[in-house]
């Protein structure tokens, strides 16, 4: 015997109710239904009375409406798959926003009684009224026991009903309801929530962010409260032209993202005149930072998605668009204490901008033109921008690398679709998207786009800051005042306010720099702890290293006394002598690695001494050769005109530099198809300078850095990612290297232009 399943009316009721966390979400769901029905206009009306039992909510649209057949087959079917199968609307071909078929329970979330009047254009003058008492769900045993009322009505009935409700008083009434009206009118009574002014203001804010600005021409959204018709009216989505930066990104698949950057932060006429020297700086001589690039205002670039990112995950992410604005909310760093303008900012109204950011700030997701809650709502920092900025809090002009946007400085829109982003399914509560690997990658791609803006602004502001410091050497003057004060008697100390201003300003600047250095040092401490741990166990490790190689021969000699080696000839398995040979090979690897590691932390390497570069590089390469050979990597050294050439410095500094180069090459070869892996090192004497070139034939510079390669020397900059584009490298290697080289007079580091692989050059002044 086969028996059917049955669902209780109360269970169906609860399933529907739990899909709407609050009343605002329920109204949004009904507005989406109007959009799906090809409506041009949707009006939300709150008729709030002193007696709550008399209060009502209305949602009115001029969409396609519903026939009695549609009401019976689709509206009355819980969990219908109509929108899942018919993804686009019939007339305007809009992508339908709903898919679960439980949106009608939004009516129940709002109140216990609901009435719907619906007309279709094909049935002139004829419509239908549907009504339900949601309390019946609590009384009925099974779902089939609950019934709604459905009756045929005329256009006259519609007009009378609207007049009874007071809808004819709305300023938009004539535009909404005409003789050939088609659409749907929902009336919810016996409301579950108190719709006071605070609640209505919250609803208005929610509706303002519900649709993107470009949609308001084809879908007008209105909100009224019956007792104060002047309170609102048409809901205007977020628009703002007074921004500092606008970034527009589009991903169409593959491993490229197209980006447009609009700069509006700096006054162009001042850049062309008073600040023109900034374009003489090296970083500002190349696109997109030249003066002609600023004159265009908009620059474009293509960024690459790391090859390590899983291709299947990328396909699951699908096409998307991302537009965001950067808006700083203060001009406090515009001028110094002397009134000198540090940055040629365009002026703006700070209070107006702050108010707009409070209302529309954050990064929001829109699926098929409707916002997906709660992203960007009420300070929801779902991209972790605050956490990123806390780890690297420096300003854009303080140093190159590490500048991060604050979450209260961004307003953005991400556009996705049911059709192209199928992996992004709603949570059952309709409050957000289900977290999965594709969504994690999606977030990281958005952060990669944001980092393009951060680098752009960082480059511009840092070079303006360096220009300012060169023209206003305040630190030098501050030192003079301080030393003068220290050399003077207390009663002769300067009381001039000007001196105090200089000292205060310089102190503030130094304090900021020290905070930045502390962030860098915290990373360096973590890296250094590994070396400290190794140094702590140096004696024990040396003892282990000494015993590694002899132990295999000792064990072999013991075995030979009892088991002749000939007995196991030709045997691959269960051969103790073959296992000994394998163990010996592994021990040799471990021995060489320990030898290299322990030599790298010798105390003598921390002494400031004369270093014979030829001898140093020869020994350095020999220490790496066994490890590299096992990885099938060949390394060679070419020395030219370096006899007796000495460099004054720390051997540990050179270790840090060249170890970084070697390990980077090893990593590059891991994903390279090159069969003959090779590292070439050359050192030569060029008019009193030691020129050391380091070149490998690996995969070369990551594609994302091809347009701006010097970025790799910035702090926390890394192309080492996992399959979800999470950065897993420290991004400190080349930053540390550049910092070491900067300590040596007239030393420099630069990338070498090579056809294949990667090349880097270091130059030291020699004795």
Total discrete domains? 3
Give the CA-CA distance, first to last residue: 99 Å
Q: Would you identify the regions where 5 or more consecutive residues have pLDDT less than 50?
A: none
Main structural class? alpha+beta
Number of helices: 22
Q: Into which percent range does the helicity of residues fall?
A: 25-40%
Strand residues, percent = 15-25%
What's the story with the biggest beta sheet? 8 strands, mixed
The Cα radius of gyration reads 35 Å
Largest beta sheet: what is the strand line-up?
5-4-3-6-2-1-7-8
Keywords: ATP-binding, Coiled coil, Kinase, Nucleotide-binding, Transferase
GO molecular function, one term: protein histidine kinase activity
EC number: 2.7.13.3
Enzyme class: transferase
Tell me about this structure.
With 767 residues, the chain is α+β, with helices and mostly antiparallel strands. The chain has 3 domains: 224 residues, Heat Shock Protein 90 (2-Layer Sandwich), CATH 3.30.565; 232 residues, no CATH class; 160 residues, Histidine kinase-like ATPase, C-terminal domain (Heat Shock Protein 90, 2-Layer Sandwich), CATH 3.30.565.10. It is built from 22 helices and 22 strands. An 8-stranded mixed beta sheet has the order 5-4-3-6-2-1-7-8. A hairpin with a 6-residue loop joins β3 and β4. The longest helix is centred in the last third of the chain and has 40 residues. The N and C termini lie far apart (99 Å).
